[in-house]
Specification:
Layout (H helix, E strand, L loop, with lengths): L2 H22 L7 E8 L8 H4 L8 E6 L10 E5 L2 E5 L6 H8 L4 E8 L9 E8 L1
Antiparallel strand pairs: 1-6, 2-3, 2-5, 3-4, 5-6
């Protein structure tokens, strides 16, 4: 048996074991990926303080586009059970607003709650995107 034939046979044999493993390691479609973690802007101006005792980490919040917002046309509002908590900060809302405008499936969770006098430190949300 020539060296070339041996290497081809050996490679084919290894490929027979490795190929099914590659197929199994294929990432699942439709899984959630974290896009960003952001504080909630404007918490102190909306219903945040009244809702604070009811909020808990891992609770879902709703992302709502407000393209006609007079301050920023990329505005993304954050609601919890139909009540406004605040917004994705303007410096962080470009990707989220574009994905929502394209009709992508987005989700958000409360991932941080902190008793602080600084409203920007009170709530953190994880914005996730279904790929």
């Amino acid at each position: 048996m020539s060296r070339r034939v041996f290497l081809q046979s050996f490679t084919a044999l290894l490929g027979g074991f490795a190929f099914p493993a590659l197929l199994q390691s294929k990432p699942e479609l439709n899984q959630w990926k974290t896009l960003q973690i952001s504080p909630v802007a404007g918490f102190q101006y909306h219903h945040g303080e009244t809702l604070w005792p009811q909020l808990a980490t891992r609770q879902t919040v709703t992302l709502i586009r407000e393209p006609s917002n007079r301050f920023d046309q990329r505005t993304v509002r954050i609601d919890w059970q139909g009540e406004k908590l605040g917004y994705i900060p303007a410096k962080d809302n470009a990707a989220v607003s574009q994905l929502l405008d394209r009709g992508e499936t987005m989700s958000a969770l409360i991932v941080g709650l902190k008793k602080s006098n600084n409203p920007w430190e009170r709530i953190e949300v994880e914005v996730r995107w279904r790929t």
